[in-house]
Amino acid sequence: MSLAFLVAVSSVSAQFLEGGPTQPGLPTGCVGSFPNLTQCTIANYYLGDTVDRCAPPAPYPVAGQQVYIKDSTNFCLNLPNPDSIFLFNNYYSWKKLPTIVQAEGFVQSYCMGSYLPPGSKPLPQYGIRSAHVVKNFTVPGQNYYQIHGYMDCDLLGINCTSTAPGRYDDAGQYDDGPFINCGKEPYSGVDASAAANPGMQHYVEMAGNGLFCMRVCEKGNLGPGLPCDLTQDTAGCEKFMKVQFLGEYATGFSYMDLANGVKTTASVFIPPKTSATLSGASAAATTGGGAAGPAGSAGDAAVSPTAVPTAKKSASLQIFNAFVVVLSVAPFFFM
pTM of this prediction? Predict the structure, then answer.
């Protein structure tokens, strides 16, 4: 039996069951649309002409899985999908919440701000406790937006407990890596409309342990050394995106354009957390499983309509530039 045939059979069995349940938006019998990871390892993460029988109908990116970054109070993230049949059967029905990594392949777009891409939902109010955005258009062909901050795992219905005492778990990753390269969210992507991120196509998002980060990038930037490098899926926010979660980045909402060094802050009211972060089991028992918390009309906190620009082109900015600007282009098969 050929390797290609084994890959095809295992890929199908991982997401398809004849006569089984069907996730809305997918072909009959499919609960997800992603390849079998064991066979991906055997095939060195290239499935060739393998066909995904559980692929949702075009156009792509599909509704409900589109992200974007406009500024610190207008953006969308992909988070575990509370309506996923797979997540319900394996977590919610057992009074547990999934971690970011456990929900890879089963995502739903949640947004802060007034604009919602097709199928997206508003973030639970106060679900994002801080957000810092960087616009980096300093390297032609490698333009990107980046966001990072803290999230309220209880309100978002995510298990953010560490796998070991003191361990920093943010290795769960969502991205638009292609199916043939074993991407787990191959039909997700960036909303490139005028209301979101025109000219952007790819994204890479990591979260866990109460932290999150994401980049949206131009076409052709998924390869090693590029802004949306998919090979960094276990590196974490601090190592890959060179972001900080302490000091001025521990709280607040800000936007910086690296081309001119101007930083803008937004006034956002975030109330104190009323309880300590719950474990996966107790949080699910409290919230009933799935995305928790009341959603605001736009999913955002009280945002001041007037942002305060402050010029901060300093030595620290130059250091930040050195960290985040990609200086070399490596050839890669993702396009």
Answer: 0.80
